[in-house]
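Re: the pair you flagged

First of the two:
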Amino acid sequence: MATDYTYAVARIRSKELSLLSGHDIDSLLSLPDYKSCLRALSDKGWNFPDNSDISHVLSIQTEELWELMDELVKDDNSFDIFRIRNDYHNLKVAVKAVTRSVSPESMLLKHSVYSPQQIVGALENRDYSQLPDILQEPAKEAMASLLQTADGQLCDIIIDRAALEHIYRLGMESDNDFIRRYAQLTVGCADIKTAVRSAKTSKSGEFIKKALCHCDCLNVDALAAAAVKGIDEICDCLTGTMFTSAVPYLKISVSAFEKWADNYLNSLMQEQKWDPFTIGPLAAYILGKEKEITAVRLILSGKLNGLSDSVIKERLRDMYV
């Protein structure tokens, strides 16, 4: 029997009204300094103690987001696709911390599928059986690679690819079209950026194939072969795929491509506003809230570091509302 999300979607519709709009973000950006931005956020309903630093301000918003989702969708793993990124971040942190004999605590992320402490403990004990099954192989491979080669980049590639494979699998297992398309876009964009970076740094075909993650929206073998040749060949490889419209942006820069990808995702999210019955609107709200948090982080960090409004604005993306 399909889950009824009608009540949850109704709650989300009311919560969307409190999200920061593009106009709100522009107004925030126009303020003169960090403290005035905090006052404006407080007026918009953001709750945080006085003299909060950026991480505290934003962590409260993240806490509230996941508390809401846990309230609306109980005992459900439908949102694992959005949390699992934190598990692989924590795995990466744990591998590097253990091999360097430093504490990982300050770098671990909450709101993951698995316990960060479980991941750290398993690696400290070199007992991979303590890890969830899905994390055991990438943990072994990344740990062995880092110990043998001291190559942090290779360690990252191993774990990043495992993360993308996991996201893709969760997406394809979902019966929601928006979540499936999110997985395709996430993995496809990551593969394209990897291919471009590899082309610019003259990586070998073997290296590129190891870094790319399979997805049905791209021919990764053809993409790897194209990356060995150059950017133009990568662009040719994308013609006829779901990324055809991204090619002109990719020819400009990776940053322009990332903006295309973000705006493309935003267009998919907008479609969920007309769906009152499925989990799609909840997934779109999660991503919309994350976009909001990212935008506020950019503005607050920029104000603290004396960046011009024009420089900050270049990094901002379209908002969900």
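Second of the two:
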Amino acid sequence: MSASIDIWRDRFERLRANKLFELTVIGIIVFSALLIGAKTYDETTRFQQTLLVLDVGVTIFFLMEILIRMAAERQLRDFFRKGWNVFDFLVVTASLIPMDDSEMVLLARLLRIFRVLRLVSMIPELRMLMAALFKSIPRMGYVALLMFIIFYIYAAIGSFLFSDVDEQLWGNISLAMLTLFQVATFESWATAVLYPTMEHYPYAWIFFLTFIFLNAFIFLNMMIGIVLDVMQKESVQIELESGTGEAAELHGLRDDVRELRAQLSRMETMLERREG
């Protein structure tokens, strides 16, 4: 009995690692996303029954796929040790909510939207990007805090200086911060904010240009630099785990050098003992 279980487990493991199987799952995920988008058009109401059948088919496929991945593990708890596996399990389980119940149909549709996120769990490059994003959030938080301080200072100055120009833009510090956010995103900031202000205060361009220089150039590039740094570290970690790439080669060379040093040290010790 145990041998039979091991045989089936090996089959499921080979199927899970099969590239064609992975591509099929990715294709079904994309098809599921298109299916959700198709339901938003009024023209598809006459194909409602067909779309429902396709949705059930996609749900059954995802259920079978998650069961195959669970069966491929030596122990079931090994499957749930990976965060992405837990995410996939929750998404697939949530998709089992029936669509024909009028009270649950909205919830079921919302949960089915999250099936698109399974692309992240299936594609390693996307997983690396998401991991880099989450790991960079703490470091980005300090930059965001510094940006908020600059926003607050400039908003206070702007509300004091330019409140008589336009109350809707500079009436209080909250409105001033919203105005500065518009300036930072370059959304019609020149025609809607800069030029009207310069009609009353010709040197107001100094205020805006220094603000843009700090936020759009310095802080934004700091954010990008943090994300790129974390992505580089994640890429190196993946190469080390997979044993491929320059990082893995360098790591292997370092191990070889350490081994050679250890051998030389042992040889020196042996020679010293013989001479002694």
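The CA atoms of residues 215 and 221 lie 9 Å apart.

-B.
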